[in-house]
Amino acid sequence: MNVALLSIGFIKHRRLYPAPQKKKKKINLRPCLGCCFGEQKYSSRCHMNETTRFNVSYCSDPLFKLRVLKQATVEKCDICLLNENNPLRYGEFVEKVYKTQRKIRAHYFCLLSGTNIPQNGSTPAGIAGFKISDVLSSYAEYREKQCYYCRHPSAPVECAQAGCGRRFHYICGYSNSCVTQFGGEFRSYCDQHLPEGCRVPVTTKGRRCSICFEDLPQVTEPDYNPLSIVRTHCDSECPPGLLHRECVQRFAYTSGYNFKCPLCWNKAFRVHAAEVGIFIPQRESAWEREPGAFKDLHKRKCTAVDCKVGNGRNAANQLVGCKVCGGQLMHRQCCGVSDADDYLCSGCRDESFVRLV
């Protein structure tokens, strides 16, 4: 056979059957179980990307009168002298103007974890309860102290273990398996003196986070940090779940007083979460702070499209609210239930949610 024909046939063959190409990795977007609460409905580690990292709020509350830096910055924290900005890990990076033109910047968790930084003010005073004068005077206590992990100065956190004396930046501690307990006396511990609850071995092989459904870090990974995983096992009825620490922290930011185990809804989970380094704001939940969140409760009128009773004074006594959120008031006759405890509004009548009620 002619060589030219063979080459033509080969070319045609390649045109008809092109070489196989590498498959693009498919990103599975799974429903997020609660770490975002309205910020993003589906998650592929939604809390980890740059666009949603800063979508948390605590210090941004107008009550504090603070400016919160919502993007990467070259400005340094006046406490640790580092400029990393990740509110899920280090707390919000805040800026306070005092004496007209002077500014002080700090990671909020640097303030909370600083061994020699007292919190003597009321909630709106200074920086979320930390008086400016107390923060400024605390510099002398740690400015010359060297971080055990990075060897740089201004290490405000000291291990609470008697006789240890190790000091570190909160940011360095986060990356080196240290922990600050956000409760009680707000004690911090280095990686050599972790409390017993933080030293329980965790097996992550084949496991996924129960909030974002993404893979968990493996023990074999070079940057594996056991404290980046939070366990759930509140009681005998709670499934032994594993959660990304950042997922739990975002959940805590949005839940506030209503923070509880995302698997069994046990509020006792708050104690364990605080002991392993989760900051839980003492305030109402994000969904309760939305404008008009409780407007239906004040109207005291039936919200049914075709009300069968009317909104007279006597009819108001027959109104029932959703057993979950208390909203969308309806007459028992309009919502079709005989027992008020059986009524679910349209917003809460979700198949995946009803199983948890």
Mean pLDDT: 81
Cα gyration radius (Å): 27 Å
The helix/strand series, from N terminus to C terminus, equals HEEEHEEHHEEHEEEEHHHEEHH
Residue stretches low in confidence (pLDDT < 50, at least 5 long) are 1-19, 23-47
- The total beta strand count reads 13
Report on the architecture of this protein.
- The structure is a single chain.
- The chain is 20% helix and 11% strand.
- The chain is α+β, with helices and mostly antiparallel strands and 357 residues long.
- A three-stranded antiparallel beta sheet has the order 3-4-5.
- Strand 10 (229-232) and strand 11 form a beta hairpin.
- The longest helix has 14 residues, at 3-16.
- The chain starts with a helix and ends with a helix.
- It holds the Pfam family zf-HC5HC2H.
SSE map:
Blueprint: H1 3-16, E1 30-31, E2 42-43, E3 67-68, H2 87-90, E4 93-98, E5 102-107, H3 108-113, H4 132-142, E6 157-158, E7 167-168, H5 170-175, E8 179-180, E9 188-189, E10 229-232, E11 241-244, H6 245-255, H7 269-275, H8 295-299, E12 319-320, E13 330-331, H9 332-335, H10 351-354
Antiparallel strand pairs: 1-2, 3-4, 4-5, 6-7, 8-9, 10-11, 12-13
Protein name: PHD-type domain-containing protein
InterPro entries: EPHD, PHD-type_Zinc_Finger, PHF7/G2E3_ePHD, Znf_FYVE_PHD, Znf_RING, Znf_RING/FYVE/PHD
Domain RING-type: 209-264
